[in-house]
C-alpha cells in the first residue's frame, strides 16, 4: 500500500481538487463551493490541504472562516470544515481521517480556537466533534440540528454558544439546492 502524504494546496492543484470533489460527491456543487471559497476573504491557504497517494491528489479538505455571533459578547471567528473529499477508488484507506487530523492540527498551530462542520455526526464524532447544540450553538442555514457538530481546539471557548453564520459563498449552496 502506498504512503499517504498530506500537504498544503499549491498553485496548479485546483483542477485536481475539482476532480476529487466531483468524483467524491457525484456532482459539481462541492467543487464549485471550493472555487468560490478560494476566491473569498474567508479562504485560508494554509488550511486547504490535499492528500497525495503515489504522487497524485486523492483527497482534499478545506477549513475556512465563519463567524459565531454571540449575544452578549463579540463575534468570534471559527473555522468551518467543508468539503472533505476522497476519490472513491481510494476510500477506506484512512485518507479522510488523516486529512481531518492534519487540518485540525494546522488550525491549532495557526491559533484558531474551534471548528464546526455540517455533516454526518457519527463520522465526525470519531474526531472529537460533538453536537453543537450542547453549547447552544444554532446555525442560520436550513440544516438538521443534529448534523451540526463542533470541536473546541481551546477548551471552553464555545461555552457562550451563539449563532453560526457561514459566508455567503457557502450559504449559496443551500439556496441553490433549497
Helices and strands in order, then pairings?
Elements lengths: L3 E5 L5 H12 L3 H10 L4 E11 L2 E14 L6 E11 L8 H15 L4 E5 L2 H5 L4 E2 L5 E3 L8 E5 L9 E4 L2 H10 L1
Parallel strand pairs: 4-5, 7-9
Antiparallel strand pairs: 1-2, 2-3, 3-4, 3-9, 5-8, 6-8
Question: What does this protein look like?
Answer:
The chain has 178 residues and is of the alpha+beta class. It has one domain: Aminopeptidase. It contains five helices and nine strands, in the order βααβββαβαββββα. Strands 1, 2, 3, 4, 5, 6, 7, 8 and 9 form a nine-stranded mixed β-sheet that branches. α1 (14-25) runs antiparallel to α2 (29-38). The chain is globular. The model has no long low-confidence stretch (mean pLDDT 94).
What features would you highlight for this structure?
5 helices; alpha+beta; globular; about 180 residues; 9 strands; Aminopeptidase; nine-stranded mixed sheet
What helical percentage do the residues reach? 25-40%
Estimate the strand proportion: 25-35%
Low-confidence stretches: none
- Shape descriptor reads globular
**Count of domain modules:** 1
The average pLDDT is 94
CATH architecture: 3-Layer(aba) Sandwich
- The rounded Rg comes to 16 Å
- Output the number of helix runs: 5
Distance between the termini: 41 Å
CATH superfamily: Gcn5-related N-acetyltransferase (GNAT)
Specify the CATH class.
Alpha Beta
- Secondary-structure-based class equals alpha+beta
Amino acid at each position: 500500500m502506498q504512503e499517504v502524504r498530506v500537504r498544503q494546496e499549491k498553485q496548479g492543484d485546483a483542477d485536481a481538487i475539482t476532480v476529487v470533489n466531483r468524483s467524491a460527491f457525484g456532482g459539481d456543487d462541492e467543487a464549485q463551493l471550493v472555487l468560490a471559497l478560494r476566491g473569498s476573504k474567508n479562504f485560508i491557504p494554509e488550511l486547504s490541504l490535499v492528500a497525495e497517494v503515489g504522487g497524485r491528489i486523492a483527497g482534499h479538505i478545506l477549513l475556512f472562516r465563519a463567524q459565531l455571533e454571540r449575544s452578549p459578547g463579540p463575534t468570534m471567528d471559527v473555522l468551518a470544515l467543508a468539503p472533505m473529499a476522497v476519490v472513491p477508488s481510494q476510500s477506506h484507506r484512512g485518507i479522510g481521517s488523516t486529512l481531518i487530523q492534519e487540518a485540525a492540527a494546522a488550525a491549532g498551530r495557526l491559533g484558531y480556537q474551534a471548528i464546526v462542520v455540517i455533516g454526518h455526526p457519527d463520522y465526525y464524532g470519531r474526531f472529537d466533534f460533538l453536537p453543537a447544540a450542547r453549547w447552544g450553538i444554532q446555525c442560520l442555514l436550513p440544516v438538521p440540528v443534529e448534523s451540526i457538530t463542533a470541536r473546541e481546539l481551546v477548551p471552553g471557548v464555545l461555552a457562550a454558544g451563539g449563532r453560526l453564520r457561514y459566508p455567503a459563498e457557502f450559504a449559496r449552496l443551500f439556496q441553490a439546492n433549497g
